Amino acid sequence: MQKKLKTKEYIYIASMLFGLFFGAGNLIFPVSMGQMAGSNVWPAIIGFLITGVGLPLLGIVAMGISRSSGLYELASRVHPYYSLFFTCALYLTIGPFFAIPRTATVSFEVGLVPLLAKSQISLWLTIFSLIFFLTVLWFSLRPSNILTWVGKILNPLFLFFLAILIITAFLNPMGSVTQIPVAQSYQNGSFFKGFLEGYNTMDALASLAFGIIVINVVHNLGVEDPNKVAFSTVKSGVFSMSFMAIIYASLTIMGTQSRGIFPVSANGGQALTLISAHYFGKIGAVLLAITITLACLKTAVGLITSCSETFVSIFPNLLSYKKYAILFCVVSFAIANVGLNNIISFSVPVLMFLYPLAITLILLSLFERLFHGDHCVYQWVTGLTIFAAIFDFAGALPKATIKFLHLGGMIQIASNHLPFYNDGMGWLTPALIGLVIGLLLHFSRKGQAIE
């Protein structure tokens, strides 16, 4: 007889899901999007929730249904070499190249930047990030229950303070959403803009990396059947992700309302600091900074640990766990010192390339029973998606880089001939063409086998 999870077990899984996916860095993107979307905020919110909430949930469900032991095995359905490339690229993206450096810079932007003169920012960023990553390395090399206890205290405190801030902002709005001007980038296609903004959370990528953790928890609670694992995950995930959706939407609206008093900030961290200081003064800003810094510290330790363990498993004879942890902390420290705005701008092209591959892998895994997991379908969809995603990657590069690499002609061709390219979705049509070709080949071979 298959075990059914109790209500308290569902709550436990939902709480863990929330802790895995909602980091302090996720606060800054909805607020920033809200400031720019203005009165067009609701289509942007819907697009953001699809990639920031819906896809991570589907990613975890896909891991459960596929019975894969992890991302490496799941991606190997395309090809072993592709699996190696995609796994390394994904972990480096949610690890030392972008997500981990972002934990330090978000903390710095919220905590210290408001107190510093512009001439001091570079020096203090170096000092702050050095202390931050030395602390991260210390915890990463000494697994301890301290971080667990900090999380148990910090998460409720974090959510309590955030709830007070959001409720206060709604009761005393700085402006009316319908009267807030729309930034030029959101005047047309605000839904697609919000969809792409959800990439910045990196949660869909994280769902492929950490989904196995959730699946193992469900298994350890006594659920073995893959369908029931997926059902248990979905039931817990709907609660957890619904809560995340409410927070994301509230933060976005709060960001939009802030335009009634403040101009568009350079990034969401600065906007959040201004909003907090407006309602609660310097004490509120300080409490927000301390809470976010501790939350980011905890997130960074978890990512360093996860990335180091993954690379040890993939390349067991290359470096030890300790050396990987040191290497990733050093790389993260170096990248953090380019600043939050630069990290975000540099990450956008990479996410424009990786997200289509993650989306197609998730969807193919969810519906693979329809084509019996045929590698041919995986390969055609992924191959054409990669081809188109390269154009999306090129188009998202900084203008100076495009000019230096002479990519303008290639981008213009894509803009003229690739459907939805100008909306950042140039990969969609090639992926669908790959799906049709793959399915035709699959069913034609199946028909020949029957004959």
UniProtKB/TrEMBL annotation:
The keyword Metal-binding does not apply. It is found in: Cell membrane. The chain crosses the membrane at residues 12-29, 41-61, 81-101, 121-141, 153-171, 204-222, 234-254, 283-304, 324-344, 350-370, 377-397, 425-443. Its main location: membrane. It is a multi-pass membrane protein. Keywords: Amino-acid transport, Cell membrane, Membrane, Transmembrane, Transmembrane helix, Transport. InterPro entries: Brnchd-chn_aa_trnsp_Livcs. Belongs to the branched chain amino acid transporter family. Component of the transport system for branched-chain amino acids. This is Branched-chain amino acid transport system carrier protein.
